[in-house]
Amino acid sequence: MRIILALTLAVLSACSSPAKEPMETSPKAPKQPTAKVEKTDAEWKAQLTPEQYRIARQDGTERPNGDVYKQFKKQGAGTYYCAGCGAKLFSSKEKFDSRCGWPSFYDPANAENVKTKVDMTAGMVRTEVLCAVCDAHLGHVFTGEGFSTPTDKRYCINGTVLTFVPDAQAEEKSAE
Fold it and tell me: How far is CA 45 from CA 51, 84, 138, in A?
């Protein structure tokens, strides 16, 4: 009974949290961090929006099928970076529409900047996805769901904690 209650509360809190801002878009890639990024709670609060802080630093989840997800579906070629530290995380080449309501990728673009750990919150066992550079909570990864991708993995990521940088070559080609 406790498990059902915990799951219900987790779903309700995820669904009731309104999307407060779209995914950040930047015209150029951020400088890549060369060392572990560690900040105080006050520094993170000063740098991140309240919604980014809730998700990245407090293991939150954005609302499914919100404005961030709609924006993600429309984005073309480019790269996704951590909104907290600027580390390269995912490429649009590995993005796919899993119809889950959150941005999905089948493989990290730069595996050294993505790490996973066992997450046993909400009465279930899942695999949490984190930025390996600043430990920001990004989402979860699921395997064996039957998607026709090279890895059969779904990195289910909160778009609010990503910064999208469009591919310059793709932008130039679309302007021709």
Answer: 10, 11, 17
